[in-house]
Amino acid sequence: MAQVSSIAEEQATTPLSASKSVLLRISRFNPETDESNKFMEFSVPYQKWTTVLEAILDVKKHFDHSVAVRYSCRQATCGSCGMLINGKPRLACFTKISELNSNVVTVEPMNNFPVIRDLAVKFERLFDTHQKIKPYLIRDDTELESDEKEFLQSPEELENFIQFANCIKCGLCNSACPTMTTDSSFVGPQALAQAYRYVADSRDKGKDSRLDIIDESHGIWRCHFAGSCSQVCPKGVDPAMGIQFLRGYLLGFRS
Amino acid sequence: MTQDENKEGIKGMANPGRYGIERIAYLLMRLTGLGLLGYFIAHVYETSNILRGRMGWDEFLALTQTTEGHIFLVLVIGMCVFHTGNGIRIMLGHGGVGVGKPARPDYPYDPASQNYRHKIGIYSSIVLAAVAMMYGMAVMFGE
C-alpha cells in the first residue's frame, strides 16, 4: 500500500510553519491479520528540531490515528520508542529528521523483537534475559537494617560501572547485534552489559554466580565483538566494552 | 515479515553497510574463516592424493599451476593474512585489552571500545592481506 498524503492539504487546526517536508514511510503490520508488512507514506513538514517521533505523532494526529507506536518520555529516558530509522536502530525521540540528511525517512519495528503491531515490539525476552543475570546487588549483609550504614564507595569505584548503569533497556543494542539476527537463544548485549555493571560494582559479591550464568553456549561466547551494539546505544553505555571485560574475567585476563 | 521474532537472519548478519568498519571486519572474519575451512578440507583431500602414487600426486598438483589455481591460492593467502591479523586484534579485545576504560559518557557518546587502535588493527589487516596477495601474485604469475 502506498498512500501519499500531505499535511498541507489537511485543514489542520494547528497552524504549521514548516518550510521543508519529508516523506515519512511507516511500516504497517498486524501479525493477527497481515501476511507481510506494508508501507504507508506521508509527506510531513518538519523544522530543524523536529524528531522522528514528533513526525510520527503528527501523522497520528492528522492522518491515521491507528499507527501503533510506543513512546512515553520524549527525552531518551524511558527507552520506549526504539525503532529502525532508515535501516538503523535508533530512538525516535532522540533522532532529528534534519540529522538524517535524507528526504525520505523510513521507520520500521526493531529487528530481533516480535512485532505487536506496526512499530511496537514485545520486550518480554529482553526483560527475561535482563532478569536472568540478577540485576541487583548480591551480598550476605544488607544496608536496610537499622544499625547499618549505607555501603561506601569511592568515586573511582563508581567510575568502574556508572557508564553501564545508564542503560534504559531500549533494546537498540539487541536489535543491532549480528548474533541476535540468527540466534534466538543468545542472551544479548543488553543483559551482558548489565551483568558487567554489577560485576564491576565494588558493593556486589555475586561475580561468580553471574559469570556462571553467562558462561554457556548461548551466553557470552556468542559475542564476536562486532561492536554494533555500542554504536547504536543512545546513552553511551558501550555494551561491547563491558562484554569484553566480562570475557576477560572468564579467560583469566582480569581478576 | 514473520510474526514470531522479526529476525533479519543471515541477510542482516551479512549486511555490513550500517555499522562502520567494525561490522565489515566482522563479516570479513566470517567469510575468511569459512574460506579457510574450505581450503583446509581441500588441502586434506589434495594431500591424500599421495596415496595414488607419484603420478596421481603430480597430476593433482598440476591443478595448482593453472591460472585458476594461482587465483585460488592468492585468495587463500589474502584470507589467511586477514584472518590472522584481525584474529589477533579480536583475541586481545576479547580479553578486554585495548577496549578503553569505563568512564562517564559524554554526548555524542562515541563508544570507547571502537577506538582508533582497533580501527588501525582492522585497516592494517586489510592492507597486509592486500600486500601479501600482491606478493603472491608476483611470485606465482611472475614465473
Termini separation of chain A comes to 57 Å
Number of helices of chain B: 5
Q: Give the mean pLDDT of chain B.
A: 91
How many domain modules of chain A?
Answer: 2
What's the CATH architecture name of the largest domain in chain A?
A: Orthogonal Bundle
| Order of SSEs of chain B | HHHHH
* Rg result of chain B: 20 Å
Please tally the β strands of chain B and state the result.
0
Q: Provide the gyration radius of chain A in Å.
A: 21 Å
What's the tally of helices of chain A? Answer: 8
Return the average pLDDT of chain A rounded to an integer.
91
Count of extended strands of chain A: 8
- The CATH H-level superfamily of chain B is Fumarate reductase/succinate dehydrogenase, transmembrane subunit
Principal-axis shape of chain B equals: elongated
The interface involving the most residues is between:
A-B, 53 and 39 residues
Largest sheet composition of chain A: 6 strands, mixed
Please explain how this structure is put together.
The complex is a heterodimer of chains A (255) and B (143). With 255 residues, chain A is α/β, with parallel strands linked by helices. Chain A has 8 helices and 8 strands, in the order βββαβββββααααααα. Chain A has 2 domains: 4-121, Ubiquitin-like (UB roll); 124-251, Alpha-helical ferredoxin (Fumarate Reductase Iron-sulfur Protein, Chain B, domain 2, Orthogonal Bundle), CATH 1.10.1060. Chain A is elongated. The model of chain A has no long low-confidence stretch (mean pLDDT 91). Chain B is mainly α. Chain B has a single domain (18-99, 111-141), classed as 3 helical TM bundles of succinate and fumarate reductases (Up-down Bundle), CATH 1.20.1300.10. Chain B is elongated and about 70 Å long. Chains A and B meet through helix 7 and helix 8 of A and helix 1, helix 2 and helix 4 of B.
